[in-house]
Write a structure and sequence with these properties.
This protein is an alpha/beta fold. The chain folds into 2 domains: 211 residues, Rossmann fold; 54 residues. Helices cover 32% and strands 30% of the residues. Strands 6-7-8-3-9-10 form a 6-stranded mixed sheet, sandwiched between helices. Strands 2-1-4-5 form a 4-stranded antiparallel sheet, covered by helices on one side. Helix 6 links the parallel strand 7 and strand 8. Helix 4 runs antiparallel to helix 5. The two termini are 42 Å apart. 38% of the residues are buried.
């Protein structure tokens, strides 16, 4: 089983400012979502509402078709894993893992198997862990929670590249074995792009875009070839990024229409999909959105 999630006209205020304003969002069950946004955009606030860590100032939040606030039956099957985890620093790593047993679906054997794979020192105190190992401990507990809605909020911070790659692969394997709803909040966008089905972009407390990954990738393109030919085809287009090595140039452009595609193909240019990270930077540029 997996949970859907719905936010209807949700606002969350901190003192006099809106962390989220008039948010409407529908997440189908059984998909992997990417939650993207600049620092302070409202990503953590949104996840905290879905996990019932906070109560909205106004609006309605449903998880699995039921109101999530003060709903023990639903909340016990929702996991929000934050960077560094929420552990008692005086516990041993093994004891910290075992506290997950308060969740109805927690798989201790799986958690200990992951701990061995990621070389977590079970006898060490949590406070003795490096930042990277503490992030791994949080990720292990999140995976082993076997929740119907699992949310990872920048849990990869502190992990080195090989560990992050192993975490993503384990997350996908666990998802394939037991379909559920996953939300990944991250700044390492291109690292996770291949694992995502849909992407939500939050910008200054509002949902800026919510689309399937393929829709974002269709918003632009990369053009690679002889520098002169690339410059000719790209004249007048909005350029998101560019690189040049010798006589070869590669640029990323937005709003790639069929006519431009034909001209690029006729010029012998290689046409590739645009990177999700480049599009994200473009879409959330403050000057673009009137900030």
């Amino acid at each position: 089983m997996s949970f859907s999630a719905t936010l209807r006209d949700v606002t969350l205020k901190y003192r006099d400012s809106d962390a989220l304003a008039d948010v409407n969002l529908e997440l189908e069950a059984g998909k992997i979502y990417g939650l993207l946004g600049r620092n302070g955009a409202g990503k953590t606030s949104l996840l905290s509402l879905l996990a019932a860590f906070r109560k909205p100032t106004s609006g309605e939040i449903l998880v699995g078709g039921e109101p999530v606030w003060e709903n023990v039956g639903i909340v016990s099957r929702v996991a929000l894993i934050r960077e560094g985890g929420d552990f008692d620093d005086s516990d041993s790593v093994k004891a910290a893992i075992e506290t997950g047993q308060i969740r109805p679906g927690f798989d201790t054997a799986y958690a200990l198997k992951l701990a061995e794979r990621f070389e977590l020192p079970l006898k060490k105190k949590v406070r003795e862990l490096s930042r990277g190992k503490r992030s791994v401990l949080a990720a292990v507990c999140g995976l082993a929670a076997r929740a119907e809605l699992t949310m990872f909020d920048e849990v990869h911070l502190g992990m080195d590249a090989p560990t992050r790659d192993a975490f993503y692969k384990e997350l996908l394997a666990e998802y394939m074995d037991r379909p559920h709803t996953v939300i990944l909040s991250t700044h390492l966008i291109d690292e996770v792009a291949n694992y995502l089905e849909e992407v939500i972009i939050v910008d200054r407390g509002r949902i800026l875009r919510h689309e399937e990954v393929e829709v974002f990738q269709g918003m632009g393109a990369t053009l690679t070839g002889a520098a002169a030919a690339v410059d000719e085809v790209a004249a007048g287009l909005e350029i998101l990024a560019e690189q040049q090595l010798g006589g070869t140039k590669s640029i990323t452009v937005a709003a790639f229409d069929p006519g431009t595609r034909e001209r690029a193909a006729a010029a012998g240019l290689e046409i590739g999909p645009v990177g999700l990270q480049d599009l994200f930077i473009h879409l959330t540029e403050p000057s673009r959105n009137g900030a």
